[in-house]
Design brief:
single chain; about 270 residues; alpha/beta; 5 strands
Length: about 270
Amino acid sequence: MAGKIAGGIGKQAIFAAALGWLLIASPRAEEFNAPPVAPPMSPPCDVPAIDIAAPSTLPNVTLAMQKGEKVRILAIGSSSTLGSGASSKSRSYPSQLEAILEHALKGVDVVIVNRGVAGEVAETTAERIKSEVALRKPDLVLWQLGTNDALARIAPRDFEQTVRSTLHWLKENKIDVVLVGVQYTSRLARDPNYIAIRDSLQKIANEENILYVRRYDAMRFIAQTRANLQLMAGDNFHLNDLGYQCMAEHVAHAVIVSLFVKRMRPAHN
């Protein structure tokens, strides 16, 4: 564990330097007097970068920023997107994420629309994504998924087919995607189907070159290193306010690091 923590600190130092470069080098930063401030993760939510995500490109978000346009994000998924268990709507992860991104990306207008529906499986969300995309015309879709599919015993092969076909449709329509994976909870940590769905998401992300937020790994790190912290509500299934705060911080770091990767290694759609 100590080696992993040390490795994580090293990677976070690299991240901090990279993020600083992004914000300093950003042409938009020159348009505003306020110096950009990198958003460090709060002490309760701080985890090694390796437990959050491997960076991937977000070309359409980057293009919108370069044009000085509003960045439109559709947050879609189930109860973790809706904010079930939070004390108010403002404590949901999309609401907190919008504030973090606008603080980090000085001068960029970020608008996140929350379209979470409690209990929804990926196949149903996939159908909604097409209609929501037509209405919202987002630059980025944050798709939180997997937990309800595991609980509903959806076959991993069917789950994978649903996710892949939707990712292909979004790529064809030039919309960036971030997959936000299953949460960690002790009651499901040894459930074979839950683990299979979690691993399926990692496989899909790797093969489709999609940014994937490893929520399970990040939450497990906190549970194993800060046992006094509670990220879950009383039902040990939905998140509480601290859980949503950490979720927002982890997704924000994944997105910002990936915007840095885009600038260093231009990608093509």
